[in-house]
């Protein structure tokens, strides 16, 4: 293969390599940008989701505390009410001035009898009528409903915590995979960028070699042409070599000379 052909082929090959590598670098740059954008969006979404979950968990805890306090208050009330003394007259009223009315001012006097009065109470605690013990029959139902509500809030807390833990794990996995992918793509981009630069340099070097070789060839051809007249034909020169035109000229010259001689002899 001639030097010119070698350098020409090398220039074309390296130029094609450089173009292909640049295209690959461009694709990698787009992929890197897309991954970085995806990571940023995932982080923003995760932070918003985390904030919402933390608020939901706190709301569930506050609700459980509120329901627990309500249950405790009601439980204490019903327990105390069950053993309370009578304090409300619900069946009938007590007419003023009646013997029953008079009975109210003495803890020891019982109307219609001469014996002791309300001996089961201290002074100042005298009662009348039926005692009020609260809605004891409905208390179990009320507390049962509150227990269900408390359980629901507890379930919401656990469920939200589980969802938060799962989302955080998925986010961490996504971030780790994205970081590994970014590292690989950035390394590949750097390597291909250097390869593209080297290919461009090789193509430029081949082009320079081709140009110099052509110059040297042109100079050699000129020198060769200049030496031809001084070299014999067996060495590729033209020394002592009569060309067709020169032969034609000599033949013509010879004919003219013969004609002149013929004219001289005939006169």
Mean pLDDT: 79
CATH class of the domain at 3-84 and 133-201: Mainly Alpha
SS field, number of helical segments: 4
- Level of helix content? over 70%
Please trace the helix and strand order, writing H or E for each element. HHHH
Low-confidence stretches: 85-92, 107-129
First-residue to last-residue Cα separation:
71 Å
Classify the beta-strand content into a percent band. under 5%
Second CATH tier, the architecture of the domain at 3-84 and 133-201? Orthogonal Bundle
Main pleated sheet = none
- Tally of DSSP β-strands: 0
What general outline do the C-alpha atoms trace?
Answer: rod-shaped
Give me the Rg, rounded: 59 Å
CATH structural fold name of the domain at 3-84 and 133-201: Helix Hairpins
Structural class label? mainly alpha
Short synopsis of the structure:
The protein is mainly alpha-helical and 267 residues long. It is built from 4 helices and no strands.
List the helices and strands and how they pair.
Layout: H1 3-82, H2 99-103, H3 136-227, H4 244-266
Structure write-up:
Helix content is 75%, strand content 0%. By secondary structure, the chain is mainly alpha-helical. It has a domain at 3-84 and 133-201: Helix Hairpins. The protein starts with a helix and ends with a helix.
């Amino acid at each position: 293969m001639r030097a010119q052909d070698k350098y020409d082929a090398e220039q074309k090959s390296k130029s094609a390599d450089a173009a292909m590598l640049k295209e690959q670098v461009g694709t990698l740059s787009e992929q890197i940008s897309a991954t970085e954008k995806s990571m940023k969006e995932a982080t923003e979404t995760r932070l918003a989701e985390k904030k919402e979950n933390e608020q939901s968990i706190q709301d569930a805890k506050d609700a459980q505390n509120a329901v627990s306090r309500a249950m405790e208050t009601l439980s204490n009330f019903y327990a105390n009410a069950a053993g309370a003394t009578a304090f409300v007259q619900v069946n009938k009223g007590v007419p003023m001035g009646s013997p029953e009315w008079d009975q109210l001012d003495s803890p020891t006097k019982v109307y219609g009898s001469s014996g002791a009065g309300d001996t089961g109470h201290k002074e100042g605690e005298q009662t009348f009528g039926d005692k009020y013990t609260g809605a004891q029959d409905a208390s179990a139902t009320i507390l049962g409903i509150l227990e269900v509500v408390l359980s629901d809030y507890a379930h919401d807390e656990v469920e939200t915590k589980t969802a938060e833990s799962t989302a955080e794990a998925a986010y961490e996995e996504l971030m780790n995979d994205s970081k590994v992918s970014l590292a690989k793509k950035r390394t590949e981009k750097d390597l291909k960028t250097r390869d593209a630069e080297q290919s461009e340099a090789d193509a430029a070097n081949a082009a320079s070699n081709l140009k110099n070789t052509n110059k040297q060839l042109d100079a050699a051809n000129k020198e060769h042409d200049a030496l031809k007249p001084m070299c014999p034909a067996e060495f590729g020169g033209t020394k002592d070599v009569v060309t067709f035109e020169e032969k034609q000229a000599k033949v013509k010259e010879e004919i003219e000379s013969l004609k002149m001689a013929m004219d001289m002899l005939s006169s």
